[in-house]
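quick one, two chains, predict together pls
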Amino acid sequence: MSAFKEAGHLFRFAGLFVLAFLVFLVVRHFVVPKTFGEYGHYRGASIGEIASRPVKFAGHETCEGCHTDILDVKSKGKHAHVNCEACHGALANHADDPTIKPVPPDTAVLCARCHTASAAKPKGFPQVVPADHSNGVPCQTCHNPHSPAMDAGGAK
Amino acid sequence: MNISRRQLLVLLPAAAVAWKSVLAGTPEESPNYKMSDHWWGMLIDIPKCIGCGNCVRACQTENDVPDGHFRTWVERYNVSDENMTTPTVISPDGGKEGFPVAEEDGEKYFFVPKMCNHCADSPCTQVCPVGATFISPDGVVLIDQTYCLGCAYCVQACPYGCRYVHPQKEVADKCTLCYHRITKGLTTACCEACPTGARQLVDLKNPKDPIHEFLKTHSVQVLKPQMATGAKAFYNGLDGSVR
């Protein structure tokens, strides 16, 4: 055992190393979140947290559950593929609590946003120069926004 | 019921652990949603985009995006004749309130909606020093904002300019592909609000998704394919001048 006689300081140093490693393991156990590494190098629980954020656009299926009369008109017209909230805005709060009444959209702004003529728009898309087309007469005088073709009749 | 001191010492910590998991609760998720069944992406049909800005407004409403920052935005390209390498690009306030009228002057004009490409080999997730941003098992690039330091490495790394540092939260922020909606069976806010169907959420793992037929029958491109990011925002009718 005389070989180790002078090696005490090495063992003490090695012991210190082992101790530091144990301290590291303990600290890591408490500092690293529980779900870190569940799927990869990130906190797995954050996926659930992001998924549980509240929804503001209810989705057209939700609207169509109640407003079947509008759906009947719209599904036969040229706006069949335009979802409700594209014009009416986010209305999940109205879907959750129907006593919250949504503000009807201003057609002067709304219609013009899509249908104002511009060389940048696809050629097949119906476009007008609003000033020439109606000279300030509101769009819904002639067009029903839910089914805008002229023969479909204006909104009553 | 008699409990010995020894049994109590065993039971108490167990009860504490059980109570902690009750308090923590489970996040509200769609019970039928399985991450392994999906691989999300987006189809952007440029010939259908009319530059109305509905997507930009819907995104800002749905996700509380601060003014002047965009998770999605629309650009208007103007290419004069053969001048492919120097297009004039405008995006006033991200195209949120639409665009100025383009006159018929013989030049080419078109709109390009931009957003996070949810790359399968995303440069942004690779540079994060703390594991705060990642690709979820269903192919969505997300940020754990409770973990993010706000160092903005990812903002610089994204070749598409799709990330920003949130001015109030001071952490990185970006498109989540409306992860809180798609996991509940809804489409994204931008797709819901798009009046022409220029944007479509696609699930590449769903064999019934029309995207497979679309990719087979159309000339589809991703942005900056030379960067090999594995971008999953597929553009139909993408002009060569777009960058």
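Helices of chain B lie at 5-24, 54-63, 123-127, 153-157, 179-182, 189-193, 211-217.
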